[in-house]
Design goal:
Strand order of the largest sheet: 4-1-3-2-10
CATH class of the largest domain: Alpha Beta
Order of helices and strands: EHEEHHEEEHHEEHHEE
Shape: globular
CATH topology of the largest domain: Alpha-Beta Plaits
Distance between the termini: 18 Å
CATH architecture of the largest domain: 2-Layer Sandwich
Radius of gyration: 17 Å
Structural class: alpha+beta
């Protein structure tokens, strides 16, 4: 899998959503495009996390005749140039990017210990324990870039359950692993996420 994340300040929320929905409708039948998770933060940042089968599929999509015009229109809606983060070093936890989510949290930070981070995301015992303790977590995806930064997208059933889950005390071992695995984390809360999916 290949994931591309775009984020930036955007005061034209309605127009951006309309443009993204039009693009998702067009992409629904395109081979290699798997879907996307989109939303706005409280401080007016647009976040889009798009999943492809491979880096090649992403490249071919971006080379399509109408892709350049669409991206030019999207760039015009950002208040300043957006950030783009992408990688095919991708991990999936539980159901991955779930379209059933009522709340999505995107985390960006530095990888502290890559081995520990990969174990947290992919170890079956670890994810089973997490699922039992936090049934509000539907799944997550994570991309790791060459410079050692990561982007994790976590899907929750709803925000109230997620906030309640945050107050639960984690096992000491899990808390220690998380502290070792991640550093300098920024959070982007998408209270009203929407999704694009392959038809």
């Amino acid at each position: 899998m290949f994931i591309q994340m775009v984020q930036g300040a955007c005061s034209q929320e309605d127009d951006m959503r309309m443009l993204v929905d039009e693009w998702c409708e067009r992409m629904g039948d395109v081979p290699g495009w798997l879907g996307g998770t989109y939303g706005f933060t409280d401080d007016g940042h647009f976040v889009g996390v798009v999943r492809y089968e491979s880096a090649t599929a992403c490249k071919e999509t971006c080379a399509a005749s109408d892709a350049g015009a669409w991206w030019a229109a999207a760039e015009e809606m950002f208040d300043r140039p957006p950030e783009i983060h992408q990688s095919e070093d991708v991990m999936i936890m539980l159901d991955g990017g779930s379209d059933a989510a009522g709340f999505v949290q995107v985390m960006r930070g530095k990888v502290g210990n890559s081995d520990t981070l990969r174990r947290i995301m992919t170890d079956q015992d670890m994810t089973s324990m997490l699922h039992q303790a936090r049934p509000d977590i539907l799944g997550a995806t994570m991309l790791i870039e060459d410079d050692g930064t990561f982007t994790e997208t976590i899907s929750f059933t709803d925000e109230d359950s997620a906030r309640k889950g945050e107050t639960m005390e984690m096992p000491a071992e899990v808390a220690a692993d998380l502290q070792e695995a991640m550093a300098e984390v920024d959070y982007y809360d998408l209270h009203k996420p929407w999704f694009g999916r392959h038809h």
